[in-house]
Amino acid sequence: MRLILKTLWALARIAAITASLTVSGWAALAPPEPWEQRALDLPPRSLTWSERQPLREMRLMRVVLHVAPGLATDLLSRAAPSLTRTEVSRVLDRAAQGVSPEDLAKEITPAPEVRPNTVQQRRGPGGAKFLKVE
């Protein structure tokens, strides 16, 4: 039984490594599709490594939105509390379509700041109460 579990664990690790290498190789090295060239305004010639940066970002954003869209939206909405979850979702979708970060920044309107109710957060005199066991 132990040998079977070790073998299954090794196969799962091999599959995960192979999948991550395949996705990162595709994102970094595959030539751009015609619609990707139009979306990012890429030149029709062979691209240098630095010219491929927007292409890599767009492809990885598409992968993230296909694999775990809810998780990506939740993590980014926690990192940017001034944006609502729907705004973060819209920004992620637009970034996956190839919209530049400068254009995305123009589209975002920050939500009004929510201030917590300070009256409810105050503690009473003496702080926390503890039971003494005798």
TrEMBL record:
<feature type="region of interest" description="Disordered">
    <location>
        <begin position="99"/>
        <end position="134"/>
    </location>
</feature>
<feature type="signal peptide">
    <location>
        <begin position="1"/>
        <end position="30"/>
    </location>
</feature>
<keyword id="KW-0732">Signal</keyword>
<protein>
    <submittedName>
        <fullName>Uncharacterized protein</fullName>
    </submittedName>
</protein>
